[in-house]
Model the fold of this input.
Amino acid sequence: MEKNAKVVIIGGGVVGCSILYHLSKFGLKDCILLERNELTSGSSWHAAGNVHVISSDPNISRMMAYTIGLYKEIEKESGHSVGFKPSGGFYLASNDVWILNGNQKDVIEKAIQRKKLGTKIYLA
Ligand SMILES: Cc1cc2nc3c(=O)[nH]c(=O)nc-3n(C[C@H](O)[C@H](O)[C@H](O)COP(=O)(O)OP(=O)(O)OC[C@H]3O[C@@H](n4cnc5c(N)ncnc54)[C@H](O)[C@@H]3O)c2cc1C
Done:
């Protein structure tokens, strides 16, 4: 095994693998990932695979949108299915208080923004 590297990533869960993937994509060659067990054998192994599209935090929303696009890109690059099956989901507002609550209002505004960006969102 290499004894030196410019970047050493500890942990081969989804975060470590994503960092390695992106560093390589941006042209960094001298990086290694150390995993004490099997790749993804930590929390990533157990994740249910839910991928949300809306968050009250715009940066998280952007990251979610990027991730969904990235799955398609990885399938194209690798020729392998990543097994991503977008099934949709819904937010249920049961009363006006829920809708007008700061965070949820923000979520609805984000939904409207995402709709403008092309995500299929239906507000009723
Ligand atoms: C039951 C369950 C369901 C979940 N469902 C979802 C979901 O539907 N959607 C969602 O977005 N998130 C979900 N999550 C959360 C998600 O799984 C985690 O946020 C994510 O996997 C964390 O990734 P990670 O790379 O940070 O950590 P991990 O996947 O835990 O990876 C850390 C890795 O580091 C390695 N490691 C640790 N210490 C060392 C060391 N000293 N040297 C070398 N290697 C080391 C471990 O072996 C492990 O492989 C779920 C989590 C659980 C437990």
